[in-house]
Amino acid sequence: MFQQEELDKGDQIGAVKPFLGELKHSIPSWYKPNAKRDNVLPDGELSLFHVMGYRFFYMLDECREMSGWTDNDKVAFATAAVGVEMDIKTQE
What is the pLDDT of residues 55-76, one digit of tens each? Predict the structure, then answer.
């Protein structure tokens, strides 16, 4: 009833990964990996002041599932690949 179709050569475009060539050529030729230096966390902390990217106006059903309340009455949501927990009274 069902048969597997033969693919033409042009139908295999999904297997091409052009970014691999870009990655290979983006590393400088003088760079030498150093395990002692490269595997150390930097000193200091990072805090974000403002994040943009939350979409709520055209996918309401999807966005309702992406936000919620925490146990300490804060709103939690994901935006721009960042998890956010915000106090709505202070907006912090």
Answer: 666 555 666 677 788 888 898 8
